[in-house]
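Handout, section B. The chain below has 351 residues.
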Amino acid sequence: MVVFLTLASVDVSRAETIAQAKAAPIEARHFAWHSPTCRAELARVDARDAASGEDVLVDAVQARKVLTTTGTGRLKIHSLQGKPLSVHVFRPSQFDSRTGRIWFVMHGTGRDAERYLQAAAPVAERYQVLVVALEFSRNDYPNGDAYTLGVVTQGRVNAHAAEEGRWRSPLKTPYMEIERTFSAIKEALRSQQPGYYLFGHSAGAQFVHRLLTFVHCPRVLSAVAANAGWYTLPTIDKKWPPFPYSLRGAAREFQDPGQVLAAPLTLLLGSLDTRVKEEDPHLRASAGAMAQGSHRLQRGITYYEIGLQAARNKNMPLAWQLQWVPGAGHEVAKVIAPAGQRLFAPQSDVK
């Protein structure tokens, strides 16, 4: 069961935050959430991808076999790093190659993409969606920043990267592997889907909200970020620590948070995901992260609140949802079914 955050679950001073969360639209279908410039650009994407999709796949024939066979399978793509990247796939029993929805599931810090695929499979079978889980291995992405913050070419990910010329081209970040893989799968299946659905848990949730921040005009139809450890806040306000904890110090083209504020994003938070650093060695305890809260639940609420303020400053509505899962801690198994309901169930069925 998924419910909206209630005033009993957080401090009463957050009443406005919760009221705004309840009032937000459920999700934006297709690309209405994008700017007119983006929508015009996305209309030209399919022709470009048709010519390059097979170049992404290591073995196009084997990939088509995997993608058209019911059950689990694995294919490989040529990554932007020049190394093969494993892609785990689950095709449900009644999936329609041409019209079926495509769902990217992003793993956490354990890099256990296969386990995430298995967790997603029952949800995918229920809604008849194709699950795609890329495996960002430790061999190729040795630390958390390489996976979830791959926006610099070398050195530390900090507020000086852009001014020092270390900011990676937006077309060469790990986030673009999702766009490239979607293009290749779409071409292999001759799919009519205009875009993809996105879910990430823990480190995967960091990946999701940053993809929406740092990929220009992503083809995301709806996204869920569940239980992220910390966030890149959509603000350049000096009262918040600089990049990567906010957009202050990011490359100038990404300091305007308009795209991510308009994105069809649900922040899904476990009500019991409240362990602090002393209880959870994987929780980042830097000054920048601690400024967002002492545990993941607080940090998720902070991200939403900063989004609200940023949207007000831009005189635009915030498109995000803020929801929680009662009784859930930091386990993907507890939040993936509610995420699937948010992404794929008819609006009338979402409580």
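Note. The radius of gyration is 19 Å. Compare this with the example in section A.
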